[in-house]
Write a structure and sequence with these properties.
Elements (H helix, E strand, L loop, with lengths): L2 H20 L12 H11 L5 H8 L3 H4 L3 H27 L6 H31 L7 H27 L8 H26 L4
Helix pairs in contact: 1-8, 3-8, 5-6, 5-8, 6-7, 7-8
Bound molecules: 2-acetamido-2-deoxy-beta-D-glucopyranose (NAG) (2 copies).
Length: 204
């Protein structure tokens, strides 16, 4: 591995280490009447890969979710879509800077495309989840089919997010551009991975 790449990895690690502290600004602590609901979210989040981030992003949904795992997944998907839109507008803003090198501009353009696919996948998952949302009227085999689709779309979304950051590895992209996009997308990928993990725990 080139020294430059190692240096890049070191910067990335630093970024990643600091990530969970700065994302999904923790909401005001919930009132005591929300304790049961907050505990449900905390317990559910403890099964995900990034429990702290999960709890930070979802705790403000406690009164909506109560202790309904389907509603928890719907909230996790909305947060993920919100994060994807945030990342997308950040990258779109960067693409308008006139001082990007040709390589940077190309990477940024691919990234915008990948984030567009991510947003489509998340929207589709949200739509289908809202339709079936734990409803007993949905035939079991149809439910299984639809949930398999949702999991496929979510995995595709995560792959697109990873592709977006992979584009920067080992290429000449200025540190400022790299770190801004990186932190936004690492955040997004973690939030999406948490949502998929919560969906994986649904019983149907
Ligand atoms: C998206 O951006 C808005 C506005 O900056 C912010 O309030 C929100 O927390 C962000 N959401 C996520 C999930 O990053
Ligand atoms: C590119 O321009 C933006 C403002 O448009 C500036 O903030 C940024 O520092 C510049 N980057 C480089 C590498 O010159």
């Amino acid at each position: 591995m080139e020294a430059k790449n190692l240096h890049f990895l070191a910067i990335l690690l630093l970024l990643v280490t600091n990530m969970s502290a700065i994302t999904c600004a923790s909401s005001a602590s919930s009132s005591s009447s929300d304790d049961t609901n907050s505990n449900f979210i905390k317990t559910s989040c403890s099964t995900t890969t990034y429990p702290k981030l999960c709890n930070q992003c979802l705790s403000s949904y406690a009164s909506v979710v109560r202790s309904n795992p389907w509603k928890l997944c719907n909230s996790a998907l909305s947060v993920s879509l919100q994060a994807a839109r945030n990342a997308s507008s950040l990258v779109a803003a960067l693409s308008k800077q006139r001082n990007l090198t040709k390589a940077e501009a190309g990477i940024v353009k691919d990234c915008i495309e990948n984030l567009g696919n991510t947003i489509d996948d998340l929207k589709q998952s949200i739509k289908v989840m809202a339709q079936i949302g734990g409803s007993s009227s949905t035939a079991k085999n149809n439910m299984e089919f639809q949930m398999a689709n949702v999991k496929t779309w979510m995995s595709a979304a995560i792959t697109d997010e990873d592709t977006c950051t992979d584009g920067f590895a080992g290429r000449k992209v200025s540190a400022g551009v790299k770190s801004k996009i990186r932190s936004s997308i690492v955040n997004l990928a973690r939030i999406t991975s948490n949502a998929l993990s919560l969906i994986d725990h649904l019983k149907y």
